[in-house]
Amino acid sequence: MYHINEIFQTLQGEGHNVGRAAVFVRFSGCNLRCPFCDTDFAASREMSGEEIAGAVASYGARLVVLTGGEPALQADARLIARLHAMGCEVAMETNGTRPVPEGVDWLTVSPKLPFVGAAGRPVVSRCNELKCLFDGRSPVTDFGIEADYYYLQPCDMGGGPASEQNRRITQACIDFILSHPQWRLSLQTHKLVGFK
Structure pTM? Predict the structure, then answer.
C-alpha cells in the first residue's frame, strides 16, 4: 500500500516537460520540511498499486509524474513496471536525498540543501534534469550532480509572481543565466497562468 495525497491530471508546469499533459501522483510524506512547501501532508489515503493504476488510467495523459512530498520514500520498481505496462512514461520529481527506484524514464532532482541544511544533502549523482531553486541569497551550485539539463527556478517567496521580492529573485536568476549559459530559466507556469 502507498500513502497518496492526490492523483490529478494537468499540464506539467515547470522544467523541461513544461506544457505536457501529465497525470500527477502526489505521494504523502517527506523526509524534509522546506519552508515554502505547497503540499498538504495531512491529506492522504492508502492505495494499492492496482488502485493507483486505475486512477491513472481514468485520465488521457500517458506521462505520469511521481511527486510529493518525497516519492522516493514510497515509489518502487513494481509500481513503475505496472505503469509501464499501461503504456505510460514515468517521471519522478525528487529532492535527491534517497535512492531512486529502477525504471524511471525521466528524473528531475531538486535539491533542498540550502533551505534545510545537512538533511537535504543529495545522494543522487545523475539525473535528466537538475532543477535548483533560487531565493536570491544562496549561491547557485549543481551539488556535484551530472544532468542533461540544468534549470534555475525562482523560489516563490509569497505574494505571487508580481510581488517585488519575487520580481527581484527572477531578475537575479536571469542575470545569473546570462553569465552561466549552461543553465536555463524554469518558471512555475501553473502559477503564472493559473492551473493546478
Answer: 0.91
